[in-house]
Amino acid sequence: MTTRRGTDDETRWADAESILDGTPTESATRRLRQFRRRTWTTLAVVLVVCLAGGGLVGWAIGSSHGHHGGSDEGGASGWVEVLGLVVVVAGVALAIAGLVRMRRAGA
After folding, report:
1. What is the C-alpha to C-alpha distance for residues 51 and 54, in angstroms, rounded to an integer?
2. How far is CA 8 from CA 3, 15, 27, 30, 105, in A?
């Protein structure tokens, strides 16, 4: 098992050096594309989940108060509150994703 891991480490090191030199190998290019695709997919999923969750919570808050428009108490309108909630949830989701990624990387 150690020889396979050592070989894999050497391959990844050679890929990293080729990227730094500006002439990535075929396997390094494949890894970069895979990483970028995974990153963009993760961001898109987090955004969609946050928007859906924010919309659902905003709808629930608006229907529980019996109105869907602006607030009569002079506070922020319902959609401003939902937008703030979506931004907060997106930040929390990205923070959790970052922590999971750090944990998997062994940091």
Report:
1. 5
2. 8, 10, 12, 15, 16
Predicted confidence (pLDDT) per residue in 66-77, tens digit: 554 554 555 667
Query: Helix count (H) and strand count (E) of the chain?
Result: 3, 0
* Phi, psi (rounded to 5 degrees) for 6: -60, -40
Instruction: Quick: pLDDT tens for 2-52.
Output: 455 667 888 888 888 888 888 888 888 898 889 888 988 887 887 788 777
Report d(CA 86, CA 88) in Å as an integer.
5
3-state secondary structure of 76: coil
Cα dihedral sign, 8-96-60-68: negative
What's the CA angle centered on 107, arms 28 and 4, to 5 degrees? 50
Rounded to two decimals, the pTM is: 0.51
Which sign does the torsion angle of CA 39, 40, 46, 49 carry? negative
